[in-house]
Amino acid sequence: MATRRDFIKITGLGVAGLTVGGVGTYQLLKGASLWDSATIGDVERVPTYCEVCFWKCAGWTYKDKEGKIMKVVGHEDDPHCDGRLCPRGTGGIGMYYDTDRLTTPLIRVMENGKQTYRKASWDEALGLIAENMKAMAEKYGPESMALFNHGSSGDHFERLFRAYGSGTIAAPSYAQCRGPREAGFKATFGATIGSPEPTDIRDTRCLVLIGSHIGENMHNGQVQEMSDAIDRGADIITVDPRFSTAASKSKYWLPIKPATDLALLLAWIHVIIEEGLYDKDYVEQYTTGFERLKNHVRRMTPEWAYGITTIDPETIRQTARLMGSAAPAVIVHPGRHVTWYGDDTQRSRAIAILNALLGSWGRRGGFFLKEKASLPNYPYPANPTPKWDWKATLRGRYPLADEAVTNALVDASLPGGEGQEQMIHGWIVTGTNLPQSMPEKPRLQKAIDSLDFIAVVDTMPMEITGYADVVLPECTYFERYDDLRAAPHREPSIALRMPAVEPLGESKPAWWMCKQLGERLGLSAFYPYEDYSEVLDWQLKQVGSSLEEMKHLGVKRWPRKSADLYFKEGEAVTFNTPSGKIELYASELESAGFDPLPNYTAHPEPPEGFYRLIYGRAPMHTFSRTANNPNLSDLMKENDLWMNPKVAQIWGIENGQKVWMRNQDGAYSSFPIKVRVTERIRWDCVYMVHGFGQTREALTRAFGKGASDSEMITTVMIDPIMGGQGMRGNFVTFSIEEPKQVQSL
Amino acid sequence: MRYAMAIDTKKCVGCSDCVVACQIENNVPLGYCRDWVTETVSGSYPNLDLELRSERCNHCDNAPCVRCCPTGASHIVEGGVVLVDGFKCIGCGACIESCPYDARYSHPDGYVDKCTFCIHRVRKGLQPACVSVCPTKCMYFGDLDDPSSEISELLQNRKWKVLAPEAGTKPQVYYLI
Ligand code: SF4
Ligand code: SF4
Ligand code: SF4
After folding, report:
1. A177-370+572-591: CATH topology
2. Which among B81, B104, B105, B166 is the best mutation to test ligand 3's pocket, defined by most ligand atoms within 8 Å of the CB?
3. Tens of pLDDT along A509-558?
4. Which of A47, A246, A352, B120 could pair with A188 as two cysteines, CB 3.0-4.6 Å apart?
5. Class of CATH domain B3-176
């Protein structure tokens, strides 16, 4: 079907002219090491913080005598990484050396009746975006221009949008990832979890992981602290239908039937209350609703949960007792990617309740009280007040959404219907590959097709760039300044990112693009600087440092201003909830018309011959962002499909054999995936790592390697409380032959 | 002095940071590696065991690769570290055949290469690249002749094993189990 905006393959466009070789092209003496002649101190190092994932570890970029980037290592003084980057961070230099990078702006044009991209000058590309933004503001108001952002470059665009008059801004890290846990914990403790998580893993005695695969998800600080905890003899309990790496390090592995976690959590609450394992003083002093909770779970016995979860009652009791005996140094981990079944806020509530009963919030070995370095804002002029912002796109839904809901922005970009008019007419997308970071691709495509204009900013020709009218090539984090990192942790700290080298080709930093756009939009007053380093220097001087100092330090830490990392014994604490207490019974949920106490609901089961699709992370990759990274694809080129031997036998599938997947809605995978026959998974589900199966030929290393889980996620279960898109209600079956009619969804 | 490495399988998560750090540090061409991670699953669902191991040259005390090298390119330096002199190496591959651990590879530039225990870093008082980067801090490098070194203490206090002891090569990479 011809659409107004054809998807264009970027192959061969804008990727030519890279002058650097790939990694490993240093010409050295035979057998010589890179470091034989160059020792630390001889070479130059400049500070940065990693952009390969949201953990934002601080590090040093090392350069050789010719000024080429050699390696990046963790900053020894950084609370996020303690001197050690994860594999993705270490291999992050591959982002810079990737020969498939975007290096010139591109504009969509018609050529011989076909849509294609042509290289454009920055002036032209920026002019076109500014022109469209102006037209949009006149025609529908600036609010109708939406920003989808992720990562550091998104912050620059967010400021541009606010100055332009739009607050229609969303990141997929909320409704496609951690949103439900934030809503669930907020309704209970009056505080969200945030990033990095304030889990005091290093001092815990018992760590409970529910579908959270620390060690495969390489959230650096957590992985390091889990290892420290193992050293100190902490017990780990892992609930996962798959024998994850974490499960292999656990005292208890509970191979739960997928989609039934809430029943297990309720049974744990039951045992902890019935056996008096809860922290009575803590519950008495800090919480409200205990009696109602107690009545609520009275019948939710381990025997009841057994029938649902397949976890035997004795194991449920033993694990509950283990938590009780470790309390308050116990963490029932809130997880990170928790948009699973549409009742995820309620599951997160149950997790929050458990932590409250065990008294772990605000306690050593539980959750610490984080503190963030406060940096004054640069004195920009006041932003105009938009007539409406992302909240209006909720259209009365998702009352507890605390952050913008990406899917609501997509909905609001669709042409009117059911009395709803199209609210959004233009997009800018920065640093997020929406077709992979969001499910329901057909809906996304429809929304994009309804727009007047879309521009995409990225370092790589990711799939989303193929939908753009204008593509702006961003330089990598090794080539730019960004905002100072000031994330909350045990101690407040800041970290500087500065360019180690000049941007490659014509790629540019996001701050530069925004300044240019701002000036073209008549917003020069918001950009009174030549270089973003001036903003950083100003901010740093307000806190007694300077850019000069930070170039040498990289990371600066301060002592805490607030008293303690934990509550003091018996300390009076007011929680930011309606009652000022930890709400076991959530009044906020009740007044919004939801269950004030979590209930288990059964979710759809796989039809016969189908298996529930579960997905997760590999330690070497971050989403689809790293799939083409030369260093990281060298570690892991493709994903595989984990399958229990019993299932493989039924299908006559051998280990390593390639199969195509088809889901319950008839969607086929674009590419086949290798089957990994393994005892490490239950027989009612299959598992794969997210981020593979790239359909862009321009990603020469990643194209066609493995399969994409996102293609199989065509049914979502929306969380009515906060708008999260539950993605684990999709079921796949296998096709050994290449399907004739590949339905491209 | 006897340099050795101990790797705690109870902590290793198989992330391969050790692999990529080595590749970058030692300019190992993409597609090759001096260290690698293995995964061994035993048992059947749901009674399973998983062992993840970061493997590399064992810098054997009784190294067949050195004995069989016709040019003397494979040699031993301080601390028992086994090295290959790329200039002397003619790429015959005898050592590759003799190593029971498959620890050596043919470098595309025509010589044999393998783990050096990052002796260039160790000589400067640094840890090998893999050890220094490992996010779980599960790798320990040090001198076994010094009874008070961290590695000596670990080997005294923890259960450990070496790979293919039956080959008689006296490997010096120890796995804490
Ligand atoms: S956890 Fe790894 S990828 Fe994420 S910021 Fe840290 S080093 Fe980078
Ligand atoms: S870096 Fe450490 S945790 Fe990761 S695979 Fe290597 S030894 Fe294991
Ligand atoms: S592991 Fe192989 S290459 Fe290394 S010293 Fe022993 S025999 Fe030689």
Report:
1. Dimethylsulfoxide Reductase; domain 2 (3.40.228)
2. B104
3. 999 999 999 999 999 999 999 999 999 999 999 999 999 999 999 999 99
4. A352
5. alpha beta
